[in-house]
Specification:
By secondary structure, the chain is mainly alpha-helical. It has one domain. 61% of the residues lie in helices and 6% in strands. Strands 1-4 form a two-stranded antiparallel sheet. It has a two-stranded antiparallel ribbon with strand order 2-3. It is flat. InterPro entries: YhhQ.
């Protein structure tokens, strides 16, 4: 007896789903969270490298107010970058909430650790006979454990304080008084960051007196806070644009620190 062949059937794997016709890929989450976190992390890495350089302004002048050295101004090479990291942190907290901002902070912390480990490995690798810049290479990226600890501790505490303060103020003000939560969170976060970082890193970048230390803390804190105020119109526009274009932006049912 002739057997009639059955029509071809799509192979069904053990999962019960039809076998796909093309290669499998995961979907990238929509929205602007990912590129903002990438910019946030890149700013942190660059800042921590630049911060290894001690910088002074107005070195031809010497002005003191009691124990406080007003001039010259002592700071580090990342003085113009740290404010940007906090501005991006404000945007993350305002748009995506504390949980998402905290996730970005954890990610940044992990990447900073990875950066330090990779730099250490690169420094210890044997230099080629034709490579004449080993000492300069070590000097530029060979951050000491003291600076690593200062950067990580200051960053983690400062960013957490910044994000938590912003969302707690927003819980009370809702969509009103954006300026209050941007500036208020910056004051709290930047002070925590600056105090911790300077306390640990001061001697590593050459600050060897109390007057220089106080100057370092005050100048760093005031500059970073002032930078937030100066760019407030830009921050307002970025936040307004994201609120308009993020389709999931809406009030949450959970309290601010749980959202």
């Amino acid at each position: 007896m002739m057997r009639v062949s059955e029509p071809n059937k799509t192979e069904v794997p053990e999962s019960g789903r039809p076998a796909p016709d093309h290669a499998a890929f995961a979907q990238v989450a929509r929205g602007y969270y990912t590129p903002i976190v990438a910019l946030f992390t890149a700013t942190l890495i660059i800042s921590n490298i630049c911060a290894t350089k001690g910088v002074q302004f107005f070195t031809d002048h010497s002005v003191h107010l009691g124990p406080l050295e007003v001039l010259p101004i002592s700071t580090d090479g990342a003085w113009f970058l740290f404010p940007l990291a906090y501005i991006i942190g404000d945007v993350l907290s305002e748009i995506y909430g504390f949980k998402s901002a905290r996730r970005a902070i954890y990610f940044g912390f992990a990447v900073l650790l990875l950066t330090v480990v990779c730099f250490k490995i690169a420094i210890e690798l044997p230099a080629a006979t034709f490579y004449e810049n080993q000492d300069a290479f070590r000097t530029v990226i060979g951050t000491t454990p003291q600076l690593v600890a200062a950067g990580l501790a200051g960053y983690f505490v400062g960013e957490m304080l910044n994000s938590a303060t912003l969302v707690l103020i927003k819980e009370r003000t809702k969509e009103k008084h954006l300026w209050a939560r941007l500036i208020g969170s910056t004051v709290v976060g930047e002070f925590g960051d600056t105090l911790i970082f300077c306390s640990i890193a001061a001697t590593a970048i050459g600050i060897d007196s109390w007057s220089q230390f106080v100057n370092y803390v005050i100048v760093g804190f005031l500059w970073k806070t002032l930078a937030e105020v100066i760019v407030l119109p830009i921050t307002y526009r970025v936040i307004a644009w994201l609120k308009k274009h993020e389709p999931t932006y809406a009030p949450r049912e959970a309290p601010a620190l749980q959202s």
